[in-house]
Design goal:
Elements (H helix, E strand, L loop, with lengths): L3 H9 L4 E4 L1 H16 L4 E5 L6 H9 L3 E4 L2 H9 L7 E3 L6 H9 L4 E4 L2 H13 L4 E8 L21 E2 L3 H10 L3 E7 L10 H19 L6 E3 L19 H11 L7 E4 L3 H4 L3 E12 L4 E5 L8 H5 L5 E3 L7 E7 L8 E9 L6 E4 L20 E4 L3
Parallel strand pairs: 1-17, 2-3, 2-10, 3-4, 4-5, 5-6, 6-7, 6-8, 8-9, 9-10, 12-14
Antiparallel strand pairs: 1-11, 11-12, 11-16, 13-16, 14-15
Helix pairs in contact: 2-9, 4-5, 5-6, 8-9
The chain binds ligand LLP.
Length: 384
């Protein structure tokens, strides 16, 4: 993926840094657009995956909406060109101030996760002389077969309203004068590569629709959340996720009524592959069991391996050696979990070599911290 010219450019930049391939982002967005346009589905980009303004502007320019999980994300999305009537606000613990931000800005929809939250939104909407549109987030009780840290649709997860409490919650919502119930919302997890959980999700949604019909309710919006996974092992082989086959599967399995709209909230699938984190090798330290390559990026720059045991493909971009060796790739932070990977084979690596951590565009830069009072990583783009 990285040609000689680009690596030369990398050698002039201050490490560690995130590099975004804007061409690849655009290609991903246009593939997504044609996959969803085929069925008239709507996409709200999950801003949590990457809230970099440049990235957000690219995404909004394709006409997609935004899925936000904080008042600040709502404000950032609006600043970066997402129209308010395409902004959804999700999250299990929205504060009063955050709800007010959504209401004052006339966002499209609140994805609501509890009965008490409905009461609070109703009150704040009333105080502002407005009606808030809401979708109820249902916990579908589906195992998405993904990393346990990011599996959100199980019955014991804190997210969503229990399936059994749904009817009572709907009845309650209908009594609130500043709430307009417009839909149902689900999210089963993240980095989902298996299609079966999505088929089950369609079944759950269909069951729910039947229940709603029996209650005499015809809600115009169905939101199936995000979650589509990407190829962390071979990003060059699969730079763009297979949106087409997921949309075909949804179309074949989901009951959609006349005038009903179907929404998705993809984050990772849109931005992961266009981002790479690049670090510089500081020291090579042989030890009894392994050889450490100590780089100048740590979990403050890319936390996914330390937090979830996640795997990013690691490449040495500048080695001149044919010889290969095994390394543990570690960062400089004073914590033993500051390890990117262990026992990986790389061309012989020496001080000064540039190391790329691939597929880092989602939940990378945005999760960076200043622990140890480190600087935040730098950011560069392919087109400037
Ligand atoms: N919608 C809801 C309600 C969500 O909770 C999430 C992600 C998304 C959409 C976007 O999901 P995506 O399409 O990106 O899978 N930091 C973790 C991932 C956390 C995902 C949380 N929810 C990671 O680095 O793997």
């Amino acid at each position: 993926m990285f040609d000689k010219e680009l690596i030369k450019r990398f050698e002039t930049l201050d490490t560690p840094f995130y590099y975004y391939d804007i061409q690849l982002l655009r290609e991903t967005l246009s593939r997504l657009k044609s996959a969803v346009d085929k069925y008239g589905y709507c996409v709200h980009y999950a801003v949590k995956a990457n809230a970099n303004p440049r990235i957000l502007q690219e995404i909004s320019s394709f006409g997609f909406g935004a899925d936000c999980v904080s008042g600040n994300e709502v404000l950032r999305a609006l600043e970066c060109g997402f129209p308010a009537d395409k902004v959804v606000f999700a999250g299990v613990g929205k504060s009063d101030t955050e709800i007010e931000i959504g209401i004052k800005n006339n966002i499209f929809c609140f994805n609501v996760e509890s009965l008490q939250e409905l009461e609070v939104i109703n009150k704040i909407a009333g105080q502002n002389g407005k009606t808030a549109s809401v979708a109820l987030r249902l916990n579908p009780g589906i195992d998405a077969h993904t990393n346990k840290c990011i599996n959100t649709g199980l019955a014991d997860s804190k997210f969503g309203i229990d399936f059994n409490q749904m009817e009572a919650t709907i009845t309650f919502a209908q009594k609130l004068s500043n709430i307009k119930l417009i839909g149902i919302h689900f999210h089963i997890g993240s980095q989902i590569l298996d299609k079966e959980p999505y088929r089950l999700l369609c079944q759950r949604s269909n069951e729910m629709q039947e229940k709603l019909s029996l209650m005499g309710l015809d809600l115009p919006e169905i939101n199936l959340g995000g979650g589509l996974g990407i190829d962390y092992d071979d990003p060059d082989k699969n730079p763009v996720p297979d949106f087409e086959s997921l949309m075909d599967l949804i179309h074949a399995n989901l009951d959609v009524k006349d005038r009903q709209r179907v929404h998705f909230e993809f984050g990772r699938a849109i931005v992961a592959q266009c981002g790479t984190m690049v670090a510089k090798t500081l020291y090579i330290k042989p030890a009894s069991q392994t050889t450490f390559a100590i780089v100048d990026a740590g979990f403050t720059d890319l936390i996914r391996p330390a937090l979830y045991g996640a795997h990013h493909k690691i490449e040495n971009l500048t080695s001149h050696y044919a010889q290969k060796d095994k390394y543990d790739i570690v960062g400089p932070i004073c914590e033993s979990t500051d390890v990117f990977d262990t026992g990986i084979t790389l061309p012989k690596t020496v001080r000064g070599d540039l190391i790329a951590f691939r597929s880092a565009g989602a939940y990378g830069e945005i999760m960076a911290s200043r622990y140890n009072l480190r600087n935040l990583p730098n950011v560069y783009y392919s087109d400037n």
